[in-house]
Design brief:
The chain has 434 residues and is of the alpha+beta class.
């Protein structure tokens, strides 16, 4: 191919020029002496129109024999076409087949069951729906990091292997770690972010986290990515404000840059356009009262289940903060409420439309004696937290932070029925392949 190689998303800048596209055949239909080749290259799709009399006989016959997802180089002239989804079409003048599969592509036009699609996740990612979701995922992550960077936060990576339990022993993946020691896959990077906050003030970590709970709900994954900011001298209220502004920024950013992808998923944009500060804010006590009025039987003092969160969020058109939960259902590191020792200064941010928790945050316990007491109450090994307790021994300070589950945010923004589509390689209790 002698024409310059151009990516599909840049074709509109080359009207009337001869170009080469390198990619895959996404679809094909023929009408006698014309082939309509739907081509993709990762940046977009374009239709290539191949007329028999305008190309060599060999090229036309090769196009006729192409299977879906054949890899090709296509040469042609760019012409504007307002009817085309990409705004352009390619008048094909040449075709080079890089590889034509020997069999039919497994994921065809017919409907497939979710297990089949997940077994073929490495191929399913090529579909237009999955590409739209992954582009939105990339934008969510980009927007979150951009917001924190602009607000003066520093990225501090936390370890995947740890000897400290962050979120309760029942959800741990335990590993043998040399010399008969035990290690765990990180449930959270928070404890390390707290240490970094004492050094740099405003920090965050971002990476994969692991939970061994045998959850089978549409909101749970075994491995997921979490963004965890931690801020020195932020109290509970400032922590909530940070969460609110971050989520609003992410949604605004995705609406600006991924409108086409959202529309292709059938997302109601008007619901996302309402996601602007201030969000709703109620106490745990008020939430329990509302739930009982709405028919829930969850007793006071219990944490909320998925059904409770669904019921609650269906009453609001924007995200809702539920704050100050009972101490007994929350993690050991949360700050005791100054007016009620049975509660802690924490919040869960619930997304509307039944999507539930996307953020869990709290002011951290900065009193060393209370923190040690909570560690003992939870039956944790105090020695494993000696370094964590040092943060209270040497210059203790008011500080707060939160963890935002990236896949849960994506599932909500995209309007997905199940969180597994929000991850390129979902891990559940039944799935570790591909």
């Amino acid at each position: 191919m002698s024409a310059p190689w151009i990516y599909i998303h840049n074709l509109a800048q080359h009207e009337g020029e001869s170009v080469t596209i390198k990619g895959w055949m996404y679809n094909k239909r023929s009408s006698g002496k014309i082939h309509f080749l739907q081509l993709r290259d990762g940046t977009g799709t374009v239709q290539g129109v191949m007329v028999k009399r305008e190309v060599s006989e060999e090229a036309f016959e090769n196009a006729k024999r192409l299977w879906l997802e054949a890899s090709v180089e296509v040469e042609g002239t760019v012409r504007l076409d307002e009817r085309a989804p990409s705004g352009v079409e390619l008048t094909v003048t040449g075709l080079k087949v890089i590889q034509n599969p020997d069999e039919e592509y497994p994921i065809g036009k017919k409907d497939h069951g979710i297990d089949f699609l997940l077994d073929n996740r490495h191929l399913w990612l090529r579909s237009s729906r999955q590409q739209a979701i992954m582009r939105i995922r990339e934008r969510v992550i980009w927007a979150a990091r951009e917001y924190l960077h602009n607000e003066g936060f520093m990225l501090i990576d936390s370890p995947i292997l740890t000897g400290s339990i962050g979120e309760g022993a029942s959800g741990l993946f335990e590993l043998d770690y040399f010399e008969n020691d035990k290690a765990y896959l990180a449930q959270t990077g928070q404890l390390y972010a707290e240490a970094a906050a004492a050094a740099f003030g405003k920090v965050y970590c971002f990476g994969p986290t692991f939970r061994a709970e045998k959850s089978k709900t549409r909101r749970h994954l075994t491995e997921f990515w979490m963004l965890e900011p931690e801020v020195a001298f932020y109290d509970h209220d400032l922590n909530i404000k940070l969460q609110e502004n971050l989520v609003a920024y992410i949604v605004e950013h995705v609406l600006l840059h991924c409108k086409n992808e959202l529309e292709s998923l059938g997302r109601d944009l008007s619901k996302l356009e309402k996601v602007k500060p201030p969000f709703y804010r109620i106490t745990y006590d008020k939430a329990i009262e509302m739930l009982h009025e709405l028919g829930s039987s969850t007793p006071y003092g219990d944490d909320f289940g998925n059904e409770d969160e669904t019921i609650l969020t269906q009453q609001f058109d924007k995200p809702i903060f539920v704050e100050c939960y009972p101490k007994k259902v929350k993690a050991f590191y949360m700050k005791e409420h100054p007016e009620n020792p049975d509660l802690v200064l924490c919040d869960d941010l619930l997304a509307p439309e039944g999507y539930g928790e996307i953020i869990g945050g709290s002011q951290r316990e900065d009193d060393m004696k209370r923190l040690i007491a909570r560690i003992k109450e939870e039956g944790l090994n105090e020695k494993s937290y000696d370094w964590y307790l040092d943060l209270r021994k040497f210059g203790t300070f008011v500080h707060s932070g939160f963890g935002m589950g990236i896949e849960r945010v994506i599932a909500w923004i995209c309007g997905l029925e199940h969180i597994r589509e929000a991850s390129p390689w979902p891990r559940t209790i039944y799935r570790i392949k591909p």
